[in-house]
Design brief:
single chain; 292 residues; mainly alpha; Farnesyl Diphosphate Synthase; globular
């Protein structure tokens, strides 16, 4: 697929719009990026724009299959990484920078595989199966960012991946109802069954707007505990990051984990509504992050 063919269907954002793109689609990330030096924000907003655009390709109106668009995006991304101009500003900025910083192309390639898992979505039997998706869809982003800031220690990189996976699991907890509307159920089937529930019961609760009971709340709390364990382990490695990025990563970690409080505030009923933190909560969490 050519760059012009891809852009005709869903044009990648241009450099002048990367920060706004992040602000519209990733409010917590945009909030955390304010704690970085201005000179570094473009890098973060560009990487975010690449990741978000890749995610959006899964849901664009399909004259061709979304698999075709992902194939084309992968090929163009590889070309840009290898130093060949594609004519797409986003690729011609992000990919050469990744190569210069020593970031493995495996990360964007695996993230695209994570998006293919969305296209071919099958419910995950257990947490181990879900973790494969979490790693591809978000652990790769943590690794990409860490390597772009010079982190090469295996222990630290593992925790960078954990931070990305924790954030993606928080997204899943928050967006259960919206994901069901798209025909996707990410909650592990064995954990659903452990609390006396079935996927059909979740679909019916979403359809009728009926809150689920104690079993549902316990299921969500169990998954929150998994995410919070990963956040805690990831925070142990933040001190290895350069100062400017360290502060932003710390803010992002606490602000994202703060969504769990919003989930509890709505009685865990993320099948029925989307939990969100207030700006005042984000500010309080950010103050805590920069004070520790």
């Amino acid at each position: 697929m050519t760059a012009s063919a891809l852009a005709a269907v869903a044009a990648p954002p241009r450099a002048s719009g990367w920060a706004g793109y992040m602000g519209r689609h990733g409010q917590s990330f945009a909030f955390a990026s304010a704690f970085m030096p201005a000179s570094e924000r473009k890098r973060i907003s560009a990487i975010y724009a690449w990741c978000r655009y890749t995610d959006d390709l899964v849901d664009i109106p399909q004259g061709r299959s979304a698999e075709t668009y992902l194939d084309g995006w992968l090929a163009l991304s590889r070309a840009a990484y290898d130093g060949r101009a594609t004519g797409i500003e986003l690729l011609d900025d992000v990919m050469p920078l990744a190569r210069r910083d020593g970031v493995s192309f495996r990360y964007p390639a695996e993230l695209i595989e994570g998006m293919r898992m969305d296209l071919r979505h099958e419910p995950y039997e257990d947490l181990a199966a879900l973790r494969i998706y979490l790693w591809r869809a978000a652990g790769t982003v943590g690794l990409w960012l860490a390597e772009s800031y010079g982190i090469r220690d295996a222990w630290a990189l593992e925790r960078a991946a954990q931070l990305g996976q924790a954030m993606q699991l928080t997204n899943i907890i928050r967006d259960v109802g919206e994901d069901l509307d798209r025909g996707r159920l990410y909650l592990p089937l064995d954990r659903i069954a452990a609390y006396g529930l079935t996927p059909a019961m979740l679909v019916e609760a979403r359809r009728t707007g009926t809150p689920l009971g104690a079993g549902w709340c316990a299921l969500i709390e169990e998954l929150i505990a998994v995410a919070e364990h990963d956040y805690a382990e990831a925070r142990d490695a933040l001190h290895l990051l350069p100062a400017g990025f360290r502060q932003a990563a710390s803010v992002a970690s606490l602000v994202y984990a703060g969504i769990h409080g919003a989930v509890r505030r709505i009685g865990h009923q993320t099948l029925l509504e989307r939990a969100a933190t207030t700006r005042a909560e984000k500010i309080a969490l950010a103050f805590r992050a920069v004070s520790t």
